[in-house]
Amino acid sequence: MEQEPPLVREVHPELIEELAALLEAEGERELAVCVRDVRLVGECDCGDDFCQSILTAEHQRGQPYGPGHRCVPLLPSSGDLILDVVDGRIVYIEVLGRPPLPRRAQPEQGPSGSGQQPDLPA
User: Fold this and answer.
1) Would you say 70 and 85 are in contact if contact means Cβ atoms under 8 Å apart?
2) Is the pLDDT of residue 107 over 70?
3) Which of 22, 56, 69, 94 is most enclosed, with most CB atoms within 10 A?
4) Phi-psi category of residue 22: left, alpha or beta, with phi > 0 → left and psi -120 to 50 → alpha
5) Percent of the chain scoring above 90 in pLDDT
6) Do residues 31 and 72 touch, judged by C-beta distance below 8 A?
7) How does pLDDT run across 88-97, given as a tens digit for each residue?
8) Residue 110: how many CB atoms within 10 A of its CB?
């Protein structure tokens, strides 16, 4: 059985709290709720030192998202935060020009969790 990727809120809780607040401020109530349950499927490997973007759904790099896609630019106090949303689902979180994202050392585990850090996809 393949392990599910961790929730982004387990790895970057401050980012998710900020995104939820910014989405609420923009009137994006549904996305503000949904952002708390996105998974860290992968991290951008573009190599740009200003990029810390997060893939939250499988997607072939370089291919358009297609019908149902929209960008949701937000207004953070520093840098850029832009969400790619397809049919109401957040599929990518662009994190650009911001200080390094703090990582939680150990994600919270439920009662049956082992307390170990899951392997994050590259």
Assistant:
1) yes
2) no
3) 56
4) alpha
5) 77
6) yes
7) 999 999 999 9
8) 5
Token digits of residue 27:
């009137």
Burial class (CB in 10 A: 0-12, 13-18, 19+), 76: middle
43 token code pair: 């991290």
Residue 109 has pLDDT above 80, yes or no: no
Residue-wise pLDDT for 47-87, tens only, equals 999 999 999 999 988 899 999 999 999 999 999 999 999 99
Residue with tokens 């899951």: 118
